Amino acid sequence: MTRRLVVGILKGGAGKSTSASQLAIWLAMLGLGPVLAGDADTDQTTYEWMMAVRDKLQEMSNGDPKSRIDPVDLTHGRTRRLHELERTYPFSVIDIEPKREELLREALWRPDKQPTDLIMPMKPYPPDVRKVPQTIALAQEVDQHNPVHPRALLVQVRLGTSHARDMPEMLDDNGIPRFKTLITLKESIGYSLNTTFVDNGYADVLEELGITNLKPPKAAGKD
Fold first, then answer.
1. From 37's CA, which of 26, 45, 66, 137 has a CA 20 to 30 Å away?
2. What is the 3-state secondary structure (H, E, C) of the chain?
3. For residue range 19-30, what is the model confidence (pLDDT) as tens digits?
4. pTM of the predicted model, to two decimals?
């Protein structure tokens, strides 16, 4: 059975592609693959990033198939075939284009009625917060068919600011499930696309999902 991690929220610019790419890289680096990295966003950032790093990851692991990432273009309706495409993978990480309710619904829906994890990246600002209930409502619709477990993931957080202090409390007060892990703002991450840069915060996200409590391998770090 494939464990499917869908990274999506009904708002653009929320950090989806970075989150999806980092989760896929961590799964591969920890030897939990092969990983299907599906990109259903027309900008194809996740697909291009995974294509750029997959050979490096294989080199780092001496060709271990459990450290392999297989990037897949899921645009043009291919999300409807996701169940077939991911059949042989222990994990899939799916990046969903924002503002596309039907696309997100297709990625959450599973014909075998297995659970889906929905990771909702969001910056700690009101416009992002306003989209979270709408995204959760969509997840609850699909949950009538197969279990969907949505959780908000606060990203690009400046530690020590009022947003870093107040936003987790606001989510809790509104009954919005969230990760305890905060992904902090890193000025260099914009220059790390197409490298094997890893953010340790995403290893903590995997641990919160109950996937692993392993420490990062020695090879982890910037390319």
1. 137
2. CCEEEEECCCCCCCCHHHHHHHHHHHHHHCCCCCEEEEEECCCCHHHHHHHHHHHHHHHHCCCCHHHCEEEEECCCCHHHHHHHHCCCCCEEEEEECCCCHHHHHHHHCCCCCCCEEEEEEECCCHHHHHHHHHHHHHHHHHHCCCCEEEEEEECCECCCCHHHHHHHHHHHHCCCCECCCCCECCHHHHHCCCCCCCCHHHHHHHHHCCCCCCCCCCCCCCC
3. 999 999 999 999
4. 0.90
